[in-house]
Design goal:
Number of helices: 19
Structural class: alpha/beta
CATH architecture of the domain at 107-239: 3-Layer(aba) Sandwich
Number of strands: 5
CATH topology of the domain at 107-239: Rossmann fold
Length: 500
């Protein structure tokens, strides 16, 4: 699908923002293999038995002496035989070998401990472990140790560094479960298997009447969070690599785009280096595309036409390389949002979720899209799904900002103020969040606070006056969207935005 470019089509879109973590990381089978140690199949050559010639000796004493001599000879033979054959039949010990380097992103999910004080709840902790293992194994390029192997460590107090050596993994996920009737609390922590350092830890609480729904909610949240945490950990390793390869650079590209919510200067260089190293790397292609569209959608692009064309080329290439990779469809959906082909964009985002329902960024992208077309209730629903699935996501500030826009569109100004402030608390560089805050404060009579918010918005945004703001409203905008813009302009005027 090729996008036709019309500069008037994407001149707005200042309220929309989205990002991705569903980078494609591949699953492999259990890397731990049994090594058969060969044994020698040839017995030791038997020593020549002593030949005893018993002369005929009369008398009982002579007979006893002969018997004693025979027994002594047999004892000597047996001792020699046992020593020689014992050495030859002993298992062959393999010589020392250098340990193989653990595969990138490789991880084992250790059995979660049941802290409920009720042995009958073991099944629930085991189910969490199994579902986490299954969910992680579906992510391309994430080598996950098989469930049967992981469960051999159940109930054992073994240092994670030893487990890392035994299984050849870089990371260990461990945790515990406490369940009481309809409530469950899960603690999870990600550990570097080489150093034993804790990389991430969190606590998840949920209340569900249905145990299966409870499991699904917990597993989805942990899986979604782990994607970014593992990618961030790998990016830190890649940043200090002496000779970074294509995967190192692609990982750095992901984190750079996510942290900066766009593709600029240094971040663009990292992503371009990743593509130079491997032009068909789907992660680098998708994240580069998303980086360019984010810059446009957040009003930070210096040349939207050029950036949009580049974003479309990269997204199309990602899908051509692997049509079953959700990140490529997420990237394409962003491009289609910029050019206001909303139905096609929805299809791309839904395709990404069909491929992987744990991509929180796809839910967030749909939330922003529904803000753009004035379906504010539906937008809030999708933002809530994204936030619930990944409450520590790098895009949390953007999702909060989107909820603020949606509540403003619904004229629920107190809620708009709350969510705009939440967004600013996480990332105070979003001018759009300050715009929502200033307008909502002004419309509810908080004049002094509104003026302060408008001044901070003006310092961050290229939009300096009402005339420039009006130019952002596309002629094809839904009537509800135009009405929301009109109210925003009214509020910003009250907050001190000049006309020209």
């Amino acid at each position: 699908m090729t996008v036709e470019f019309d500069v008037d089509q994407y001149a707005s879109c200042g309220y929309y923002a989205a990002d991705v973590m569903g980078y494609q990381l591949m699953t492999t089978e259990d890397p731990k293999a049994e090594i058969e140690v060969s044994r020698s199949g040839t017995p030791a050559p038997m020593a020549n038995a002593r030949r005893w010639t018993l002369r005929r000796i009369s008398g009982p004493v002579a007979g006893l002496a002969a018997v004693g001599t025979v027994l002594a000879g047999l004892t000597g033979y047996w001792t020699t035989y046992r020593t020689v054959t014992g050495e030859l039949f002993a298992p062959v010990k393999p010589g020392p070998t250098a340990p193989a380097e653990a595969a990138r992103f490789s991880i084992v999910v250790l059995p979660f401990a049941n802290l409920s004080g009720d042995p009958s709840q073991d099944y629930f902790a085991d189910a969490i472990t199994e579902n986490l293992t299954t969910g992680m194994s579906r992510i391309p390029k994430f080598p996950v140790i098989a469930r049967n192997t992981a469960f051999t460590y159940k109930g054992k107090n073994i240092d994670v560094r030893q487990i890392g050596k035994d299984l050849g993994v870089r990371y260990v996920l461990e945790g515990s479960v406490q369940r009481d009737q309809n409530r469950a609390r899960v603690n999870a922590q990600l550990i570097d298997a080489h150093s034993g350092a804790h990389l991430w830890a969190d606590q998840f609480d949920t209340t569900r009447a249905d145990p299966l729904q409870m499991q699904d909610e917990i597993v989805a949240r942990i899986n979604s969070t782990l994607r970014y945490e593992l990618t961030k950990a790998e990016a830190q390793k890649s940043a200090i690599a002496t000779n970074p390869d294509a995967l190192d650079l692609a990982t750095e590209c992901v984190v750079s785009v996510l942290d900066k919510a766009g593709l600029f200067g240094k971040e663009a260089t990292v992503c371009e280096r990743a593509l130079d190293a491997d032009p068909n790397n789907v992660t680098a292609l998708s994240m580069s595309s998303i980086g360019y569209t984010l810059a446009i959608l957040l009003g930070r692009s210096n040349d939207p036409r050029v950036d949009l064309k580049r974003a479309d080329e990269l997204a199309s290439r990602a899908i051509a390389v692997d049509a079953n990779n959700p990140s490529g469809h997420l990237a394409k959906g962003n491009v289609l949002v910029v050019v206001r082909r909303f139905d096609d964009a929805i299809a791309e985002f839904e395709r990404a979720l069909a491929l992987d329902p744990n991509v929180a960024e796809a839910y967030g992208a749909l939330g922003h899209l529904y803000v753009d077309i004035g379906q504010y209730e539906k937008a809030i629903e999708f933002f809530d799904k994204a936030i619930g699935l990944s409450p520590q996501n790098q895009q949390l500030a953007v999702w909060y900002m989107g909820k603020g826009h949606a509540y403003f569109g619904l004229q629920q100004y107190d809620q708009a103020i709350e969510w705009a402030r939440r967004s600013i608390a996480i990332n105070p560089s979003f001018g759009s969040a300050f715009g929502t805050l200033a307008a909502a404060l002004a419309l509810t009579g908080h004049d002094a606070e509104a003026r302060d918010a408008e001044q901070r918005r003006a310092a961050l945004s290229k939009v300096k006056n009402v005339a420039a703001l009006k130019a952002l409203v596309p002629p094809s905008a839904d009537q509800r969207v135009r009405a929301s813009f009109d109210r925003a302009i009214e509020g910003l005027r009250k907050a001190g935005m000049p006309e020209e």
